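Bench log, entry 3. Co-assembly request; chain sequences pasted below exactly as received.
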Amino acid sequence: VLRVDVARPVAEIQPTMWGVFFEDINFGADGGIYAEMVKNRSFEFFKPLMGWKVDGKKRTEGDVLVQNRGDEKSSNPRYLRVTTNGAVAGDLSLTNEGFRGMGIKKGLRYDFAVLYGYPSAGKVTMQLNLLNAQNEVIGTGTLSPDATASADRDGQWHKAQVSFTATATEPKGKLRIGLEGTGVIDLDMISLFPEDTWKGRPGGMRADMVQMLADLKPGFVRFPGGCIVEGHDLEQRYQWKKTLGPIEDRQLLINRWNFEFGHRPAPDYFQTFGLGFLEYFQLCEDIGAAPLPILNCGMACQFNTAELVPMSQIDPYVQDALDLIEFANGDVSTQWGKVRAGLGHPKPFNLKMMGVGNENWGPQYIERLAVFQKAIKAKYPDFKLICSSGTDPNGDRFDYLNGNLRAMNADLIDEHYYRRPEWFLQNVGRYDSYPRNGSKVFAGEWAAQSDDVAKPTNKNNWQCALSEAAFMTGLERNAAVVQMASYAPLFANADGWQWTPDLIWVDNLHVYGTPNYYVQQLYSRNKGTNVLSMTANGQALAGKDSLYASAAWDKAASEIILKMVNVSGKSVNRTVQLDGAKKLARTGTVMLLTNDKLDAVNSFENATAVSPVEQQIPVDSNKKTVAMMLAPRSLSVVRI
Ligand code: AHR
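Structure output for the full assembly:
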């Protein structure tokens, strides 16, 4: 018999308990959730024409030149100068290959836009063609930029746009721009977006990917990473102020994951920041999640250059943090609140927390963090800071950091663990002995690994997901200590990943949730408000007979929530006694996630092979018991 003490909740469960970790890794942002289809739209990649092909029957030397304005426009120095000399169809074209192709959907509208200027008199017409993988035309538009607009004359660039509809569906499409007429035209920010973005916002996000996040009902979204916060070196660190305003002014950066890591080199991986900090905050607001930005603490990635800013020069980093709080929360009379309002969001975002550093360690980290802590707490005493404890949950580095962070009264300590499924089962009780007072824990990045990180053989299989489900009973039981948790990484593009496993997989047209996704979803949507004690012979159920369990009370719904995991290959029967329950319904609901094969996975072809099914279960409301048959290799979430 398992006893649940319904009358005496043991701890609160924070609304932020289960959240998501977003990073532009695996083409999660550019080439992923940011719906821009043109790769290298502003010619700022390290090779200016990467992603582009210049073609035609009558091309001549110099008819397409990359111009570089250098410091005159340091955020976006390059553009294309195209010369057409009586060009007709087929004479000259530019073709963009997209991010591993472009996903094109039949009947959907596509919005093309370009910045242009005529340095001299002339008239150039653009014939736009969507192409399928066989180079057949599956969508057509025409654009005749106004020939009187001269960048040289008025010092301005002009925007031209046209929309057209695709006639066929294609996963690996391209965009061809035929250039016709006589003249010289300058082109920049060549862009193509689908009509069906999230909330129909022009220049917005892929709706199917955002929907997957919304369906999790996450308590928070951590952004923008991960290692990309740190950068290869400090020059290439993430700087939120550079991600605001007109997209043509957002200075692009080489992505920290643009290198041969694991098995998929990505020389074409850059951050254009079309998904910038305003958009991240907006995303959080849209899906009802608390924003959790992470900022660079004056240290570059310690797995790379380990570059440090000298302590004498740390002030701008700290100022960035203070300004971000004002940007998110300040009213329009403040400098940064005014900036936010000017960007179209006068309402504050109610930011309550921020991470300082990601996976940074050593005395250098503690020294830098202390400066942030002092400055931020002086101005915003209730603001919570998330502090890094590195990547080694059982090692000396962790002990050193944890000791120091506790001593400095860190609000939350960010622990990361990418480990085998066995580690997760063995560590279900990890937080049972953590002190209840002082610093809390943010389990900020973790995922069970079926093989070494980033190997193609490292799978999101049911064994990994099941071990995570068991581990999460331990997190929930210890909600007095663990206040936030997020699986990582979140997204992966099947054609462009650097890291496995990942919670949600996408290609240009589709998206599916892994078994791990459904585990996260079951926890997040059935979070409850208070931990209840659930014991077998007075002990928490944490591995005995291969069973793991936790219980919660949901104040708003007046419901008891049980989470029970059976990792054995046999079904197990247990009676759950609901001690102290005042009045019980005669039936409860069970959401069952199970598969008899530990190597079972979801896929584009079978997206819901491992996904929850809902059943009703009888409850003995007189005896206050429920008889549970726990299927082999299963997670059961019960609401009564
Ligand atoms: O989640 C992938 C990477 O793992 C993150 O960028 C980093 O923080 C960790 O090492």
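The chain has ten helices and 34 strands. The chain has a mean pLDDT of 95.
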